[in-house]
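Bit of a strange request maybe. I'm writing a small parser for structure token strings and I need a real example to test against, not something I typed by hand. Could someone generate the tokens for this chain?
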Amino acid sequence: MRKERRRELRDSWAQLTRGRSFVLACHQRPDGDALGSALALARVLRGQGKDVVVVCEDGVPDNYRFIPDSDTVLLSTNRRGFDVGVLVDCESVKRIGSAKDALLSSSITACIDHHLPNGEFGDIRIIDPEASATAELVFELFSANGIPIDRDLATQLMAGIVGDTGAFKFANTNARTFRIASRLAAAGARASDIAREIYESHSLPAMRLLGRALCSLTMHPSGRIVWAQVTKKDLDELDATDADTEGIVNLVRWVKGPDVAILFRETKPGSIRISLRSTDDFDVERIARVFGGGGHKAAAGCTIEGSLDSARELLIGEVLKWMESST
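Reply from user aminoacidic:
Good idea to test on real output. This should exercise your parser:
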């Protein structure tokens, strides 16, 4: 780590830890990176005698309950007036739901994230879109400040890295990722166990929902876009939840040929959540931003209000427009 970067991280940590009470906010429908990063921060701050609350509106999905301290995550809090509010793995307060008021009531705010900057939220900003996961930034923050990594802390951070790199398969995996993962493995984190918990531990409703989604696979006539969908009827009939759609879009992406894979999820009538994945040559983050979402070049998401048919028409139309402009 460069000396200048180390100094910046030391200054940021010094500003953060002046506070006594903290609220750490995760985005809705959290993944391993959001939960692992937030819980790692909470663990270290509590170890320093701080009063810490971690809030995530959608709670902890079953396949992330193995993460140490996951049982401490709250769905909401009525507390206000925290000394420090930290937005973790998320660039916008629009995506944190029930945690928003508590976060904005804080005297000082911070943002720790690896998504492309979308505004300037946070008095303290630790942002690096080149990092494969926010957990990498949290590790570097700890490393720069001499904070020891025990097995539980290593597992929390490894969950973030394994989750956001697809168990080291996605294009965002790089030498920096492996260096940090090596340090975490040396501290006791078991990447193979974590990958199995995240990707190979699904409920029966989730597996049945996967079958429904794959049966809906549709290829655009251009051959460049493939999509699947999950309807509210599917969720109700299978006794499944939106959390059970975790990972489905990555399987849609397995279809050979298309540049863009999409999963449309009708979570409630009139509200369609959309997950996008792409090859290295097409930037889906710019598509998601058109509809108020965000993410990464190869993985992004957004929500469109309206019917499933209208959302699909709007989204695919926007993808085609960008494709035409790039040829």
